[in-house]
Automatic annotation (TrEMBL):
Transmembrane segments: none annotated. This is Winged helix-turn-helix domain-containing protein. CDD domains: HTH_ARSR. Coiled coil: none annotated.
Amino acid sequence: MLDSLVTSKTRIKLLLKFFAHQNSGYLRSLAKEFDESTNSVRVELNRLTDAGLLLSEEEGKTKIYRANDKHPFFSEITAMVSKFLGLDDLMERIVKRMGEVQKAYIIGDYAKGIDSGTIQMLLIGNNLDREYLDFIRLKTFEKVNRKVEVDILDADPGDIQGILIFGK
């Protein structure tokens, strides 16, 4: 859906990077990460900045970009990107059906804004339905074309590096 609305592959990568995950980045690192020329990334960064969707700030000699969470369309773009990735429906289903989930995190590459093809989740809770977990792994791959790895902890260790998607 997103790729039919936005014709630039580089722009799609930038939207995914900045709106699926609250990341920041600079030109050369983004070009290297996306395996794109710095010029094509620069053009799209400028377009998104001119549209007000991205903010840029100087950090020494480096210009750092991040999503503008004050933009009127921020939540709509975030929702569209999330639906494009299939994560919103996936997370909602897993959390509702697993049992007594206290917290759910996206960790690993996706939490860093990298689409590696594998979604890593961490669920925290007691008496979670592990049989359903095995079933949902297969269904998820069919739906979002990404492998899903889920780890379960009984208690929150308090130092999890990731995106909290459920719980407080």
